[in-house]
Inverse folding.
C-alpha cells in the first residue's frame, strides 16, 4: 500500500496556507510534520483526510485492501478534539466508535490497557483529566483497524510515561504495515520516521 | 448505524440532553393559552388542535440546533463525515434525525393527549391530533436537519435555523391541523389531508437528510 501526495496546496478562508507539498509513503513508514504555529500542519492533515478540499494537487492511495478504496475510508483521523461524549462512559464511547467504524481490532478493555487506562472504562468521559482524555482518544485508534493514521498533535497533554507508551503503539502500527502522518512539536519516538519541515 | 441511534438516544436521556426541555416548553405554552384567550370552553375546544400543533412545532424547533453542533464541537462530526464510504452520510444523518425524533419529539407526542385535556378537546379530537402529530413531526425533524446542517458552524444558530425552517414547515402544519379538524368537524375530510401529511413526511425523509449531508460535507473547515 502506498500513500501519494502530489503538489498539494491548501487554503483557509481564500488565503493560500501552503502549496507544492509532495511525498510518497510506503507501508510501514511514518512522516512527522513539523513547523511553527500557523504554518498549515493541521490544514495539511485535514486536506489529506479529505475534510478540506485541496486547493491544488491531489492525494491518493494505491494498492490498499479492497475495504479501503479511498484515503478517507482508510484513515483514522485524530484531531485536536477527542470526538468523545462527556456524558457517556469511556467504554461506551469506545464501543460506539468500534461499532460505527467497523473492522474490529482490539477489544475495548484491551485497548484501554494498551494506553494505561485499565479499570476506568466505567467512568464518564467528562470526569477524566486532559491527558487521560487524550489517551482514551488514542485507544479509539486501536478498537478498529485502519492502515493510515492521521494524528494532529497526538501527544498534547500526555505525561512522559504515556508518551513513551504511545511511541511504542505507533512503532507497532508501522511494523504491522500501517502508515502514520503526525503533525507535532514534540519528538514522537517513532523509529525511522521521516520528517517534513513546513517553513511557510 | 444502530450504534449511532442508541448513542444519540442515550445522550438525549442523560444529563444535558434535550428530552425534557421540549416537553416542559410544550407544557408551558399549552398551560398559558387558556389564561390568554379566557375561560371560554367552546372556544378552547375549537382552537385546541391548532394550538397543540403550533406548540409542538415550536418545541420541536427548540432542540434542533444541537443536532449537529454538539458533534461538531467535540470533533465527532469530522469522523462521521469521514465514514462516508462505510455509511453514506445521508443515511448517517437520517439515523441521527430518527434518534433525535425518538429522544426529543416522541415525548411531545406522548404528552399531547394529556395537554389536549387542558384545551377541553373531545376524545376523538385528542386521538386525531396525537395521530397527526405522530405522523407529521418527523417531517419537522427532517427539514430541521437541513437547517441545522447549514447553520452548524454558527455559535448562536438556533434562531437562524427556526427562520430558515419555518416557511418550509408550513405545509406540514396546514395538513396536520386540517386532518385533526377533519376528525371532529363533520363535513371536513380526515383521510385526504392525513395521507398528504404522511406523503410529506416520507418525501422529506429523503430530501432532508440528502440536503443536510450535502451541507455538512461542504461545511467542514
Amino acid at each position: 500500500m502506498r500513500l501519494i501526495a502530489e503538489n498539494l496546496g491548501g487554503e483557509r478562508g481564500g488565503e493560500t496556507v501552503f502549496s507544492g507539498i509532495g511525498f510518497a509513503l510506503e507501508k510501514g513508514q511514518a512522516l512527522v510534520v513539523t513547523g511553527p504555529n500557523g504554518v498549515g500542519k493541521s490544514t495539511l492533515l485535514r486536506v489529506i483526510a479529505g475534510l478540506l478540499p485541496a486547493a491544488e494537487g491531489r492525494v491518493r492511495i494505491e494498492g490498499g485492501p479492497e475495504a479501503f478504496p479511498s484515503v478517507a475510508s482508510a484513515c483514522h483521523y485524530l484531531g485536536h478534539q477527542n470526538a468523545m461524549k462527556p456524558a457517556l462512559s469511556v467504554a461506551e464511547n469506545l464501543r460506539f466508535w468500534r461499532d460505527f467504524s467497523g473492522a474490529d481490532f482490539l477489544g475495548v478493555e484491551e485497548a484501554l490497557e494498551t494506553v494505561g487506562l485499565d479499570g476506568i472504562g466505567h467512568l464518564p468521559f467528562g470526569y477524566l483529566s486532559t491527558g487521560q482524555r487524550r489517551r482514551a482518544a488514542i485507544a479509539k485508534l486501536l478498537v478498529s483497524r485502519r492502515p493510515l493514521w492521521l494524528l494532529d498533535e497526538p501527544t498534547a497533554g500526555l505525561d512522559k510515561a504515556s508518551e513513551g507508551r504511545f511511541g511504542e503503539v505507533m512503532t507497532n502500527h508501522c511494523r504491522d504495515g500501517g502508515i502514520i502522518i503526525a503533525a507535532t512539536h514534540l519528538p514522537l519516538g517513532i523509529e525511522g520516521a521521516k520528517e517534513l519541515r513546513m517553513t511557510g | 448505524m444502530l450504534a449511532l441511534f442508541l448513542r444519540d438516544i442515550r445522550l438525549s436521556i442523560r444529563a444535558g440532553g434535550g428530552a425534557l426541555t421540549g416537553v416542559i416548553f410544550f407544557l408551558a405554552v399549552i398551560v398559558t393559552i387558556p389564561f390568554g384567550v379566557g375561560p371560554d370552553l367552546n372556544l378552547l375546544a375549537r382552537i385546541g388542535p391548532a394550538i397543540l400543533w403550533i406548540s409542538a412545532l415550536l418545541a420541536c424547533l427548540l432542540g434542533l440546533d444541537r443536532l449537529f453542533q454538539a458533534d461538531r464541537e467535540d470533533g465527532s462530526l469530522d469522523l462521521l463525515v469521514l465514514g462516508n464510504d462505510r455509511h453514506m452520510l445521508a443515511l448517517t444523518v437520517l439515523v441521527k434525525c430518527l434518534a433525535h425524533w425518538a429522544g426529543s419529539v416522541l415525548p411531545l407526542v406522548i404528552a399531547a393527549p394529556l395537554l389536549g385535556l387542558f384545551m377541553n378537546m373531545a376524545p376523538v379530537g385528542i386521538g386525531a391530533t396525537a395521530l397527526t402529530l405522530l405522523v407529521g413531526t418527523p417531517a419537522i425533524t427532517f427539514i430541521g436537519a437541513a437547517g441545522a446542517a447549514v447553520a452548524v458552524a454558527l455559535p448562536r444558530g438556533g434562531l437562524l435555523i427556526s427562520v430558515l425552517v419555518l416557511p418550509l414547515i408550513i405545509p406540514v402544519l396546514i395538513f396536520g391541523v386540517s386532518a385533526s379538524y377533519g376528525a371532529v368537524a363533520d363535513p371536513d375530510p380526515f383521510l385526504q389531508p392525513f395521507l398528504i401529511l404522511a406523503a410529506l413526511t416520507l418525501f422529506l425523509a429523503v430530501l432532508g437528510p440528502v440536503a443536510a449531508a450535502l451541507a455538512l460535507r461542504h461545511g467542514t473547515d
Summary: The domain at 2-197 of chain A is CATH 3.40.50.300 (Rossmann fold). Strands of chain A lie at 2-12, 15-26, 30-34, 56-62, 75-78, 148-152, 179-183, 194-197. Chain A has a mean pLDDT of 90. Chain A is about 30% helix and 25% strand.
